[in-house]
Amino acid sequence: MKIKAKIKGDIIKVKAMAKHIMLPYKAAKAKGVEANFITNWKATIANKPVFEVSSSQFLSKNPILKYKLDNKIVGAKAGDDITMVWVDKLGKTKTETKKIK
Amino acid sequence: MKRRNFLSLGAIALATAVSPTIMMAKDYRKSNLSAWEGDKSHKVADAIKELYGTADTIKEGVTLNIPKVAANGAAIPVKFSSSIKAKSVAVLQNKNPESLVAVFTVFDGTIIDNSLKMKMQESGTITVIVEGTDGKLYEDSKSLEVALGGCEG
After folding, report:
1. DSSP three-state, residue B49
2. Cα nearest neighbour of A64 on chain B
């Protein structure tokens, strides 16, 4: 997973891209393999949850998510870590930690 | 509905009513699976109902930004924003086999200004629902044309 997190004024902008096939049921059936897609994404800063999304098979392949956080509430500084985790339908997880710029 | 289910629903409702300010992380696929898969997941209104208990929405306060024509249905950029104090945001569409695309949890520090890329198999309508902390649902929908379908289901 690629993460870019940047503080701009009072806002933290985060962009995350996961490498995942995001295979929906029909396409999987045609291929004869099991459908698989990311079902849940989470992000934490200093062990505090700041972002979560449950997703379905209709996110694009190698999905990209962008979100914004209010840094007046989150209170992060440049150099702090942001950790993101995704879980897919077959139970595989991937964790990535990146420093906020 | 079985009595036990009904009781636990009541308990959940009570818990959320008592502590509205505590933002809990929630996996909507686990808590509302019927909105994602199965009989009730095919129609947008049904999925909203499974997710939030009602399909009545107010069409204001949410801005959805999508292209009018998507050249490639495999990666349609979807942008939405809202300044409503919210609990969650759901993205749905009406042409794929199941309606729900994603449900975002809103935390204390969340600014509802997201973008994502999604698949759509043909021209249709994308809907964004914002679940306000006041319990009402706010909606914006826009239709688009998909030149090349990008989703085989």
Report:
1. helix
2. B116
